[in-house]
TrEMBL record:
CDD domains: GIY-YIG_SF (cd00719). The lineage of its organism: Eukaryota, Metazoa, Ecdysozoa, Arthropoda, Crustacea. Residues 1-89 form the Reverse transcriptase domain. PROSITE patterns: GIY_YIG, RT_POL. Residues 262-289 are annotated as: Disordered. This is GIY-YIG domain-containing protein.
Length: 360
């Protein structure tokens, strides 16, 4: 999904479908009057009856098991004759009724640059093709779409600024006020290497010698090294602290790269309140007592992104103490949380000990 090879593959497949199946296997008496296509979207002018059209669609969907055609009919309108000088074309972006506004989610593992470029390109298309009368409405739609996917206003604003800079440069080049960027010259020699953090500088040095270097993230140098490493269980992960009061069902969910040390810090916060452990200390001041002596670990990992994601998921499904906040974005966690937890190696036994009602 999103691969640069997808459009040419779709183009080749549909071209083969049209020449080898549509032209030869559909009878001429039910074919469309006009058939035009852009990648995988087809535009048809059909002048036969409704009954014949349904028969045409049925035959069309039996030609290839991997292709299923759906149709959207043009809306009937009223033809009005206007003098040519009175007609003004105001371009705007029009989306299908099935458009859901789903793009890369903020919690996706895609690089930040890819996420920002998607939002930037949406703004850039609006600045290229929208008339000023519709531009404000289109910007509002982009903000709503990506805000619902968990992106902050600041992140979207940054992408918008980049789009404006890009559009300004396009207009300056078109007006002859600025020279377009020269196309990159392809070197005669090319090397592909597994990616590693220590080889950043080699790309520039080889480039100055006329050698192109590309990195692969599927074949790390580290993965090629065969050595024995003593396995030591990680101390990091997501931990749970329950209240010692029998009638209190609230728990504290936290994350740390060193859970035993963090529990000691929570214990110290009872005597010396700290803003870093405000939630736990404040709960104690309300007549409760957080049990920091028993270590309940719901998830173990040394990966910081994985830890904060699981922490956010558990906070979304558990009854936590007042002020217990997640390190990640809480957006859509009520939907995504159960899905992520179902596929993660969660220690549900400790979760049940900390809060039995969480699993009901």
């Amino acid at each position: 999904m999103g691969s640069s090879i997808s459009p040419p593959l779709a183009q080749m497949y549909m071209k083969s479908f049209e020449s080898n199946k549509y032209e030869t296997m559909i009878s001429d008496d039910i074919k469309a009057t006009e058939w035009a296509r852009y990648v995988d979207d087809c535009f048809l002018i059909y002048e036969h009856s409704e009954e014949v059209f349904h028969r045409f669609m049925s035959q069309l969907n039996t030609l290839d098991p991997y292709i299923s055609f759906t149709c959207e009919k043009s809306k009937p309108g009223v033809e009005v004759e206007l003098p040519e000088e009175a007609v003004e074309v105001l371009p705007f972006l029009d989306f299908k009724d099935c458009h859901s506004g789903l793009y890369i989610h903020s919690l996706s593992s895609q690089p930040i640059s890819i996420k920002r470029s998607v939002i930037r390109n949406m703004f850039l298309w609006a600045y290229r093709y929208c008339d000023s009368n519709f531009l404000e409405e289109e910007e509002k739609r982009i903000y709503n779409d990506f805000s619902s996917l968990g992106y902050s206003r600041k992140f979207i604003d940054r992408a918008k600024v980049l789009a404006k800079v890009g559009r300004t440069r396009e207009l300056r080049i078109r007006a002859g006020l600025e020279e377009p960027k020269a196309p990159r010259k392809k070197s005669y020699f090319h090397i592909g290497l597994p990616y590693h953090n220590s080889v950043h500088g080699i790309k520039y040095r080889l480039g100055s010698q006329g050698v192109d270097l590309t990195f692969s993230n599927r074949n790390y140098i580290k993965s090629r090294l065969a050595y024995k490493k003593r396995h030591e269980p990680t101390k990091g992960g997501v931990y749970l602290i329950r209240c010692k009061k029998s009638d209190c069902e609230e728990i504290y969910v936290g994350e740390s790269k060193d859970i035993p040390k963090r529990l000691e810090q929570h214990e110290g916060a009872k005597r010396r309140p700290s803003s870093a452990y405000y939630s736990s200390a404040n709960h104690n001041r309300r007549g409760h007592d957080m049990d920091t002596s028993s270590m309940l670990v719901a998830y173990r990992s040394s990966s910081k992104p994985h830890i904060i994601c699981i922490e956010a998921c558990l906070i979304s499904i558990c009854k936590t103490i007042k002020g217990n906040q997640t390190s990640a974005s809480p957006r859509d966690m009520n939907i995504l949380g159960p899905m992520i937890l179902s596929g993660a190696p969660i220690n549900w036994k400790d979760v049940a000990i900390a809060q039995p009602t969480c699993l009901s």
